[in-house]
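Give me structure tokens for this 699-residue protein.
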Amino acid sequence: MLANHKGEIPFLVLLLPFLLGISIGLCFSSAIWLYWILAPLLFLSIAFIVLNLNYTRFALYRIRWIGGLLMTLILFLAGWFSVIRYNELNSADHFSKASAQHLLVKINNEPTVKNGLTRFTALVEQRVNSGKPVKASGSIIVTLMDTTTKFFYGDELLIPAKYNIVDPPFNPAEFNYKKYLAHQNIYHQAFLFAKQYVVINHNSGNPIIAYSLKLRHRLIEKFKRNMHDTSAIAVASTLILGYKADLSTELLQAYSKTGTIHILSVSGGHVAIIYLLLNVVFGFLGRYKKGKLIKALVIILLIWGYTMLTGFSPPACRAAIMISLIIIGKSYSRYINTLNILAASAFFLLLYDPYFIVDVGFQLSYLAVAGLVVLQPYIYKWLKFKNKWVDKLWAACSVSIAAQMITFPLSAFYFHQFPVYFLISNLFILLPAEFILCVGSVYLVLPQIPYVSAILGWILERSILLMNKILLVIEQAPLASIGKIWLTSFEYILIYMVIICLFYFLFDTKKWLIKLSLGLLLIVGTSISIKRIHVLNSDSIAFLNLRKHQGLVFKHGDKAIILTDIALSDKNYQYSIQPYLDSSKVADTTVYSLDRNINSPFLKKIGNLIQFQNKRVLLVDQSIQTKQLFRKIKVDYLYLTNNPNVAVYELNKNYDYAILLIGAGNQDKNIDEWEKQARYLHVNYQTIKRNNSFIALSN
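Here you go.
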């Protein structure tokens, strides 16, 4: 659905400069920019008001572009200003800007318990020194080595002021957890043991949110009364209530690889289904004089009631805002351009929290809906069927194609894969998901009724297990997904430009749009090919930072040998090693322990000595003898690992080397001593534990 003129989509026109301002603000969010932005923002705002009040007097109708230019600049600066104001680090009373003995914090989300740890985010309310509290602000992630104590939203705790800045990613292609938390205004984390904290107060949070989270917990327990399969309960809790804590990694992977991960996010699709059901249930109100308004009010209240069950999750709130605006417009029998409603909901949400713009869920949901509104009608027109059911099937396919087309570059950029069978999986999952949502909602609304609740629970469980089974079959099919897609920002933008050009060609068939699309595709293909050729013709050694573990990757073209003390199934391998392999287009990997001898075409390892192409690496561990050798052994890299009892000057007697590498798995006291000795002896060294991994090119 396109606009006939820009008057139909005023919010979309206003949103664009506001988005640009927020994007610039994310790059320059320091408080030093505040007054440089505030002064011109106030000046332009006053000028805009004065000019509007004197529109006729100054004959501004002759230069209409002035008003548009001023509004564009005002919105741009307002977007930038909103980011600076929202950044908690710019607050004068942020807890990190002054020392303290203790912090009084309030839990502001639902704590999760996993792997023997309790984790939650909290708002700092006070800094405490010698028993004297001082008001403070800021957010912090707290991890407790304690699962015996139950914590809830709104609990206030007194914790020691021992916190650290969140670490950046140390390895290539590793998930940037620091950046992810920064986009939630969280920059610090604290790790505490049992009895290092004191619970000061309970239920001090927002009463509506507290009630929402407690109600959701009771509803999850209700699922468990008549459902027995843990995976089915987890999917029901996620799909209907937005509670993802119990969802297994295997299930998440299955949904992700089949392109149906959106089913597990309570967002626009779920709220739309609820709206359609309520529209049918309360359809009779339309017969009465004030029935249309009453119906609209009831449906809006019930939709927000459902949103409350999800704990007011951002995706559900976004969908509720958009659908509420559509309902209000339809109640007054006014034509509303859906793109304008979409832009309006995004505009208001970004006014509330400008950091939503970097939330992947926010981006995907708005892009998907925009794709449905703009692209789906044109895709649907590609084929025409006389049979009613075949036509409906094609309509469902057109919806899936439109959503996938518009979100593919974003999904590939963030998740590095493309589900090949997305059309099939979405067709097979859409109806079961709608059925599960309907049955689950009825099950939760009804009180516990003998036999009835048991039957509904059994139907719900079997439906979910069937849906999961279908997804697992599709996931295990040949070429179910194309992985290892690593796009640069440049390629990502170019692909979206291709999509825009092709869409405009459907709308306005001009040959230059096709030519431009082909040209852009050629640039993207060339860029990807150059990267691929570079990868296949380069060798490298990666000394990874795996915290307490060791990891060395010897990459030869698209093959790699990995020396590590962690298993393939270990989360550290999947989190820190696998992304580097995928981004380097490595297709063939072999994993060895560090004590194994190796004889491969491109790597030889005997004992602690490794020969890789023209580079030599010596692993210096506890087995290395410190006795002086008859002559020095020449190597390129000495890699200290597993806390060897050796001094740097002793190494200098026996080895002629270029760089001394201190592994991340060594103890801090040993690292400090080696660094001190290396500086004194003017040795070229690098400590991997406190820095990024070390990548050495072999050719």
